[in-house]
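EI: anyone free to look at a 105-residue chain?
SC: sure, send it
EI:
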Amino acid sequence: MLGGARAAEMRRRSPIIALARIAESADRMTRTVEDLDAARDRAAVTQEELASRTAEITNQRLYLLAIITAVFRPLGYSRPFWTLCGLFGTGVAFQVSWLHERGWL
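SC: here you go
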């Protein structure tokens, strides 16, 4: 008899215990989802910071390249540069006329 009463008591408590376990599992799941959201937010902030640092380094390098270009670019427009271009242009014109005279063009 004692076993039967105990079993009846367990059956009566079983739904209550099951509901408590379900509620506990739901709370645990909610905390886990909140932790995942926080981790995702931290990852997004870290990614933005990394992109910002990369952009800053790129801008510094482009600034240096612009300075170097500003210093050396005028050297390309000096008289010897255009003289060489004229000589090469004349050489090409001479070769074209020479090939045309021979009937190869």
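EI: The chain has two helices and no strands.
SC: 👍
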